[in-house]
Amino acid sequence: MSVSAGIVGLPNVGKSTIFNALTNAEADAANYPFCTIEPNVGIVPVPDGRLAAINKYMPTDKIIPAVVEIVDIAGLVKGASTGEGLGNQFLANIREVDAILHVVRCFADDDVVHVEGSVDPQRDVDIIETELVLSDLQSVEKRMSKQKRAAKGGDATEKARYAIMEKVFAILNEGLTARTGSYTDAEQPFLDELQLITIKPVLYVANIGEDDLGGDSEYVNILKKIAEDRNSGLVMVCGSIESELVELEDAERDEMLEGLGIDEPALNVLIRAAYKLLGLQSYFTAGPKEIRAWTIPVGAKAPQAAAVIHTDFEKHFIRAEIFSVEQLEEFGSETAVKQAGKSRVEGKEYVMADGDIVHFRTSA
To answer: How many CB atoms lie within 10 A of CB 322?
Structure first.
């Protein structure tokens, strides 16, 4: 299951620094707007300590984590919706991702130029969101004129399609994101057709300074309030520290983290938050050849989860034999879990739980 999150923000807020740290890529030393011309794409593993826990009791040759595709999209500027900067290209790139990681600068540094001349999280968020709303507004408006003619034909489906366009247009025209609207299950397919940027889930990423690892600055407090008002999550990342950490060997990295009083790199927290933002969870398959985390939507049933391994498995699904990582740790082996009667047999209606260890039985 391929999923992607796009990193967006104004130029020089630290997007590429964070992207490079996430993907362990070599940082671009350029410090000017539009140093990212084409969107960079990285495949990032989802940090999950349960993989090592499984391996402790079920030794394997290979461990394969779940992954998220991260897209570094060049900085938007005021007027992007009308083509300013590289606006049209950037907006098209954002439209293709599943979720948005909105990086906001929350530190002052005279050596790092801010495209707007000062650090102001509220202004920066408003600029980005305004451009995204305007882009969606233009997109919907263009489609409405054509759809209005189709709806006049009397077809119920075409009328419903036009009705959702009118509804979304009214929301956007108020300067609000499409996320603020309330939509029925019947409207959802037509809403999906519009490929709106502002319907995508957003996680705010506060790029904090090295002197504010606790996130106590007024800049961070402003962004926290914005995230709360928009019912969105917030993760704090110090891009400069994270870019140092990824260059270190494990022992040196652990030593640096301990010196900073940090349990783990903030990027681990960011990736897990992005995974959750996308509405995803993992289940595991485990054997002597490999232990693998498989990505499924929250709420997926067992046959749909099996299809992630192979599409035929859904059609030929018989049952799922399941136990948990906690049970494996408690009893010490898969055999012991079964002997204790803790391994379950589930059918087609079973809703997968995050962290299930599964053996699928199929007729394929």
So the answer is: 21
